[in-house]
Design goal:
four-stranded mixed beta sheet, alpha/beta, 366 residues
Length: 366
């Protein structure tokens, strides 16, 4: 069972009371100072509207907040994995540095060991995290109207062409075009079956996919094109909302998903996605049955195509659809994850006193 983070109101009350019972489960980031603290920090407490709560230290760092020098929130992480703490501290102290394996080795840390530790804890390697944060910071500077040359030098690029090529590869366009442009934010969400990447604006969730999905880069580029926005690392409220809902889901709690979705798709695709969301937890459909339920018996292939075009995993539950013979097929996150999700939801339905719909034994054996 995963720890379900309390509501922000409860956490703010704990902050004011300096309640040690929440130590290690949440940190507060203060918008006005740009730092993050333990809830027990002895410093003057921020106003509620200036307080943002995060479930991990990595989230605070990814959002651009610095550790408080008074309560030293990084120490708890250091107690469990000094190497990870050391690297995150070094990254936070030199955010715009172009980190390399040689730099990691110079700190007396084996790059392979660091890569495995960061992949295990954050879903990305240390060098990937450093690159995304550096480029994200450069993009935000450009968006605020800074000169390209200043952002280039701050990011550690002596070559203008090298900077433009790197930022274009990450965000899909030249840096000068980022100035004054709307930005989407992306962040990682840890789950029991692997890290997911969530991309959102201030109002809605645009993408929620497992990091290993082969089509993820294509989906990101398509989103940039259709939305006219660029993407930087960080968080908007919909990412916090969907993370809380996913935590409840993986803890076996049937609370549903209420985070607002952007749902980029044709009217037909959105109709299929709505039908998917109407399938009760613990129940399954074949593509044919899904099409018949929509009065589209002759459009099974089109329904299957719309199912595959879904970019919001789990929330739009395309994993609840099977092939005509009841076998697992067509899941971008991997068939093993589809089987895991089906079994997880069967247990949820049973715990709620509902009898989940059976499916062929061969499905469970695959």
């Amino acid at each position: 069972m995963l720890f379900q983070r309390p509501s922000d109101d409860i956490l703010y009350d704990a902050l004011i009371a300096r309640d040690p019972s929440y130590e290690g489960f949440a940190w507060v980031a203060v918008k006005t100072t740009g730092i993050f603290c333990r809830l027990t920090c002895p410093a003057r407490k921020p106003k509620r509207e200036n307080s943002t709560f995060y479930g991990t230290i990595a989230e605070c760092l990814e959002a651009g907040f610095r550790p408080c020098s008074r309560c030293r929130p990084m120490l708890k992480l250091g107690e469990t994995d000094p190497m990870v703490t050391r690297l995150i501290d070094a990254l936070d102290a030199d955010l715009l540095r172009r980190w390399s394996e040689e730099d990691v080795t110079a700190l007396g840390i084996d790059p392979s060991t660091a890569r495995r530790a960061f992949k295990r804890q954050f879903g990305i390697s240390f060098l990937e995290m450093a690159r995304l944060r550096r480029m994200g910071k450069a993009a935000e500077v450009l968006n605020e109207g800074a000169n390209v040359i200043h952002a280039q030098l701050d990011a550690g690029y002596e070559s203008a062409s090298g900077f433009r090529a790197a930022i274009a590869k990450l965000f899909g366009e030249a840096p000068a075009r980022l100035r004054g442009k709307a930005l989407l934010r992306a962040d990682w969400i840890d789950t029991p079956i692997g890290p997911m990447i969530a991309i959102a604006d201030t109002h809605a969730l645009h993408i929620l996919e497992f990091a290993e999905r082969k089509a993820l880069s294509t989906e990101i580029h398509r989103l940039q094109k259709t939305s006219g926005s660029s993407i930087v690392m960080g968080r908007y409220p919909p990412i916090d909302e969907i993370e809380a809902e996913l935590n409840a889901y993986f803890a076996g709690e049937e609370k549903g998903f209420k985070t607002r979705l952007a749902e980029h798709g044709s009217p037909f695709q959105r109709q299929v996605w709505q039908a998917l969301r109407a399938i009760p937890t613990g129940e399954l459909r074949t593509y044919g049955a899904l099409a018949a339920g929509m009065n589209l018996t002759s459009s099974t292939r089109a329904v299957a195509g719309a199912n595959g075009a879904n970019q919001i995993a789990i929330v739009i539950p395309c994993h609840r659809v099977l092939s005509a013979d009841g076998s697992l097929t067509g899941y971008g996150g991997g068939l093993w994850r589809k089987r895991w999700l089906i079994e997880h939801e069967r247990r949820m339905a049973t715990a709620d006193g509902r009898a989940p719909v059976n499916y062929p034994a061969e499905t469970a054996a695959r």
